[in-house]
Every structure is written in structure tokens, then in C-alpha cells.
Amino acid sequence: MTSPSSSTVSPHTKSDLDLLFEFLRFRSISTNPDKASEMHSCADWLRRLLNEGGFTAEVAETGGHPAVLAKGPHVPGRKTVLIYGHYDVQPADPLNLWTSPPFDPVIRNKRIFARGATDNKGQILAHILGAIRLLQAEGSLPVNLVFLIEGEEEVGSVNLAEFIRARRNELRCDIIAVSDTGMVAQGWPTLTQSLRGIAAMEVIVRGPSMDLHSGVFGGAVANPAAALVRLLSLLHDDEGRVAVPGFYDDVTPPTPAERAALAALPLDEVDFQRETGALLLTGEPGFTTLERIGIRPTAEINGLTSGYQGEGTKTVLPAQASAKLTFRLVPCQKPSRILDLVAIHLRNHQPASVEMEIVRGHSGMPYVMDTRSPWCAAALRALEQVFGRPPALMREGGSIPIVQTFRELLGCETLLLGLAAPDCRAHAPDENFPLENFEAGIRLHQILLRELADA
Amino acid sequence: MTSPSSSTVSPHTKSDLDLLFEFLRFRSISTNPDKASEMHSCADWLRRLLNEGGFTAEVAETGGHPAVLAKGPHVPGRKTVLIYGHYDVQPADPLNLWTSPPFDPVIRNKRIFARGATDNKGQILAHILGAIRLLQAEGSLPVNLVFLIEGEEEVGSVNLAEFIRARRNELRCDIIAVSDTGMVAQGWPTLTQSLRGIAAMEVIVRGPSMDLHSGVFGGAVANPAAALVRLLSLLHDDEGRVAVPGFYDDVTPPTPAERAALAALPLDEVDFQRETGALLLTGEPGFTTLERIGIRPTAEINGLTSGYQGEGTKTVLPAQASAKLTFRLVPCQKPSRILDLVAIHLRNHQPASVEMEIVRGHSGMPYVMDTRSPWCAAALRALEQVFGRPPALMREGGSIPIVQTFRELLGCETLLLGLAAPDCRAHAPDENFPLENFEAGIRLHQILLRELADA
Question: Which terminus of chain A is less hemmed in, N or C, by CB atoms within 10 Å?
């Protein structure tokens, strides 16, 4: 398939859906080095669309994949709103699990199926088209509008903080809005009020200087894999709480009102469980599923490696064993403090017979919106107007480190107005985006700008 | 590198060392399915060598990798000796830890470095060349000699018992000799009087039907890696004993005389520790290093696999986690009983939130020789003549399940005359075989045949 990079990108002659299909056909997989030119074509397509639609747009180099930066007509005295999104997508493999090809969008059951349909092309394009259609209809926008659409969200936004620092003056704004989160139920308007933080580490236990014959030496030399599993078994107690001393010390306990709000959210636990394929839902005792994901911290093993991993048996006593760990954090836990506590806990139980190295990885602070702010109020009004019911206030389990970067570098808050359906299959085969969410997203953008202008 | 499979294999024109180097160049990794043709080439090389050396040799199909079966000139009334060995080797990875390529043998510090140098190509070729050179020099052998050299020792000799059953008449013998064990110290002649048994299993813990986003789902869905490490942590108690209920029930306690004999062996613990690279020697409380290896059973984790294992972080909640386990057994433990006990122990602690599959692997009974037999006396005399000192009686930690099969199917005992140096690095990078052990092995074979003829 060739990219539609050289055709006209005219919002005047093409329908919203035609434009989304064009956008979805780009194989803009940021983690894939041989997709660099396709990434650039996709960014340029956005630039031309925004230019045709009345914005001043550029493909801006970042040191990695480029970002698209676009500004609407500037009217002094109006508030400035920045819309952030990303045009890069996750890899599409395993391809054989897709019902239709991931970069050949189709509509089935009133949903658009394609890689990136929800994450994030469908959602960011709804904002772009909302603005362009409003400008077409009315000749102006109620706010000064800036789009920042990056190409490295799926690889950790590695160059974005530096880009924002360098272009800080052009990105100055009053409020930021992002649609890259989920709806608590399909069609149920949702404002995400918090994100968990993250702290990552790798634990490497070393024993003999090479893999030994487990018969010849086994019994007389400590096995690093056995030492590692004993250490990792100390991360949780028998009931599923994190067992690292001090781990919960800084956790702000939920208020009865917060717990009641979460309990009122329309999460379908049966659907949720079915979606994961797990036998049952489980976790920290005394908390509901939404609480376990939204307001409680976790310790997760993301990977284990040791010794022989091929077919059959190899009787080695492995030289080393390692684990990748991440901790999801909630207010007011601090990533560095948590990594310290885990390291101390592991060191306290480290047997004398093995060495242990602890490598700290990336981290991000937990994020919480002040839902009483005028910005939140404006966003909630816009959501209710579009969807016809009071929005849910969601606490997301994932982390979007960029919102913390915005707070630090631009000094302003981020509204997370998710348009993803619970079964959108982001990052998985058969990713999809309901047509009604795409259309609602376009209307939401227009109403949001008006509400923010008055906030 | 191409295999030397089509060149001449003549013991008349080639030196012992040239022949060993040719043998070592075959990448005869039995566990690796794409090495089937290389395995066959290696077997055929042995056949041609033995044929050229005066034996009637064939590459015999077994259902798996072929075995090489060869017979020397038959003289009625003479005793029949069977020499068993194997031409298959362990995988060579991790390749980056080898000083020189594993299938490109070189000599450094009077040692031959290559995968299989000790285990078992160097040792079995010493026997073959000992016989061929004796036949060249004297025109006859003091016994009727049979070689059985299999290609599946490193994958549990899965087809050998059936092969022996089918060819039992041709394999009938009075005594079997094997060099696939260690010397208690380099140059110290050693007869291994016992081997540990083995029982292998793989434990696979399954949770969600795919890797989940550990932020979005973490805390509400059980993590199979966390479940696995908790289960595996129950294999041992805090002091290093195996904690599987009933595990030690059938273990025959050592007599004071046996403990005294082990204590008298010239094991240099400092050397032993240095060789492993471990920080210290450790193991079951109340036993010495040689006892822990020779007469006490163990539970070892040979490999761990789960989730993301590449560079950096990937925030997955893994769909599954698995471990490879082996148990080394001593008289009178039975492999099937031990696997039952472990499975019961794991099932008793399996959380309801994950599925667990237990796959049983290969197994072998522990083996003990009667050291007062005339065969043992002959072997000890041969060892003393070659090495110039009284041999040590060793209890090996490794397992050679085939000796149990020989006992059952051929009704005779196996002499274990190890030529492996303590620091031979069998199964590990930089496996090596001292030149003097290769040469001593050739002499040992010749003297052994004479001693066994008179036994």
C-alpha cells in the first residue's frame, strides 16, 4: 500500500471520515526504525490538513520523529488552549489476530477498525476537525488554539520535554486538553481526574561467574534464580498487599466521598474480566476493582529472566537471574522514595551467597486534577452537553508522564477528556473506534472551546 | 564453518589430536531441531573412524538422533566390554562468554577449549583411539569390545532404552565402562561409585489471555510472574533445605563410614569455590560440600521466563510465567514420587486467580556401585597404573540415567572412570579438556581392557 502523502488534503472537499481513513493508512509506527519516512509523511499530511483548514502549521524537528505544531488565528485578549495528541501508533503485530488489515481501515458494526483508530488518530483528528469545521462555519474560534501533535508518545515521548522547553514561548497557554484516555462505559462521558505515577527498577541477582552444571555443583552453590524468587516473593503479603515496609506510608487515603464516587461509576466487572481473559478479578483486600486500579498503588513484575528458556531441559545452575519491576503510585507517593524503600527491603533479605544489583529506571509522579477548578467545570459542562448525561470522574491506573511535564514546563493543568470505548483494544489486534465517538469528539471540541473561553 | 563430514577419517594418517579437533567441530547440539543433519554427519564421522580403525561400525537409527554401534574383532571365550559415550553436546550459548568460538577448538595453557571437549567427545574419543591404537599395534584386543555412542545424552537419552531393548543381543556384555564423570582433583584418578538421579519439570502459570497494560489493569488482575515467584519460593526453607513435604522421606542416611570416606577426599574447597565464581559455598545445613553434592538431594531452578526481557522497561502484566526445575535424587528416592510431591506442594499453594500447568520432563534413578566387585577392583588397578596413585571413590552430583537402564536391560554394572578436570566447565562457556587427560584416557583404555580381561 502506498501512502496518500502526495494527494491533496482538503477539508473543503473531503468528508471527516475520508480524512480519518487517510490518516489511518499511514503506518506511523514510531518504534520501528524503518518507518521514519512514513512518520514524516504522516506528520506532513497533518500539516497540510491544518494549513488548508486555516491554521499556521509546521512539521517541527524534535531530535526524533517530528512533531506537528499548529496555531489558529490569534486574537489578543482571548484565552489560549493547547490540544495535545500523537500521530504515532503501536506496532500492529501479531498481524494474524486482526480481522482486517490494521492499516486498511474498514467500518464494521458502526466501528472503525484500524491500528490507531482510537489511540490516538481518531481522537486527535476529532479535535482537529472540530476546530477546522468551526472555523469554516464561523470564520473564527472562541479561543486562541494551538495543536501539539507528537510522533513519539508510544516510545515514551523521549524528545518532547526538550522540545517544549525550546519552544516554550510558542506553547504558552492557559489550559491543555487531551483525548487519550478511556470512557468508563461506551457513550458515558468521562473526565479523568487522576493518573497513577510510576517507578521502575531492574533487580539482577548474580551467583556463580557462569552457568554451572546443576548436578555437579547443585546443592553446594547458591542458585541466583532461587534467591531472586525468594526476594520477589517478599514484594507482596499472602493477601495481595505490597509488603515493602513503608510502601503505603505516604498514600493519601480516599475520602468516603471519593470512594462513593468511584462506586457509582458504571464499570461492568464481568465485561472487564472477560476482556482481560483472567480467571477472576483480585487484588488488595478491602478495595474494589476501580479503587485497586485508580487510587491504590501496586508492585508489578513485568519480566523475569534466568538460565535456560528454550525447549526441554538444560540442567544449569544459572549465573544470574533478573526481574523488571514497576510500581504504580498514587498521591502522595514519590517515585524516588518508593525505589529507596524497595531497595532497602530487598537488601535486608539478600542472602550472603549472592550479589544483587538494583538498576533504577524511569519514573513519573502521580497526577491529580483539582476538579473544583473553573477549567474542570467547563470541561464537565461540555461533556454533559455532548453526551446528554453528567460525566463520570475517572481515576486511571495508567501513567501519562507528559501531563506532569506540561505542569512543570508550561505551568498549567491538563484536562483528560477520553473518547476511547472500554473495548477499543488500544495496543491490541482489532483496535477500533466507534463512529459515534468520532462524531461526538468533533462536537465536543467545539463546545469545549466555547466553555473554556467563558471559564 | 562447514562440517568436515566428507573428508577422510583415517586414524592411520591423522594424529589423535587432529581427530579430536575434527570431532569437536561438529555442532552436534541434540536439543536443537535444526541440527539434525549435523548430528547425522557427526555420527557418520564416528562410523568411518571406527571402520577405518578395524571395527565393524554402523550408524543405527533410534527414532531420534542416531547412535553409533561398533564391534571389534570377536574372539570366543573372551570377556565382552561395552564402552558407552555420547557425541551430542549441550547448546553453546551464551556465545559472548566464550574466549574462542565453541566449535572452533583451540589449545590454550595445555587445554583443549571447545563445546564437548570434556563432555563427552574428548573422553569417548580417548577410549576409541585407545582401542584403535592398541589394535594397530598388536593386531588384537584382550577383550571383545563394543562401542555404543549415542546422540541424545544431553536430552535425556529418550530413545536409548528402546534401542537397547531392540538390540539387546548385540549389546550383551560382561561389564560396561563410561568416562563421563569428574576427577576429584586434576590428575587424581577417580572412580565414581554413585550418581544422583534426576527428575525434571516445567511449571507454567497463566493469567490474562494476553500481556496486559500494567497501569490500566495492574492491581485488579493477578500477575502470573508474581504468582510463580511465590510458588517457587516455597521450594526451600529459610535455611536451604528443600521444603516440599515428604521430599526427604525416602533418602537413605549416610553411614559414619561413608561420611568419613567423603571427608577424606582431596577436595580443595577454596579451589572449588574459586572455580564456580560464587561468593561462598552454601547449602543444606549440617552437611559438607561433598555431601551436599554427592549424597543429598536438591531442588534447582534451571530457568525463568516471563513478560518483557529486553532493554529498558515495558509495562506489561504478563500473560504467563514459567520455570524449569530439576531435582537431583539420592538412594532411595524415586523420580515419579518426587514429581508427585512437588506437584502436590505447588497445587496446595496455587492461588485461585491463575492457572498452572505442570509438564513432567525426563527422569533417572539414582545409581550406586558395589565397590567390592572384581570389576571395580580391576578398574581401580587400571586407574592407579595410569595416574600413579590410589584412586578416589567419588560420589557424583550429576546424573547418568543410562547406567540404570544398563543395569535393568543388560543386567550388568557400569564403571565410571571420569577424566573430567574439576574446572572443565562442562555445559558452560569455555568448556575445556586438559591435553594430559586426553592422553591419559587413551592409555587408561588400553590398561583397563587388560585388567578387565583378567578380572
Answer: N
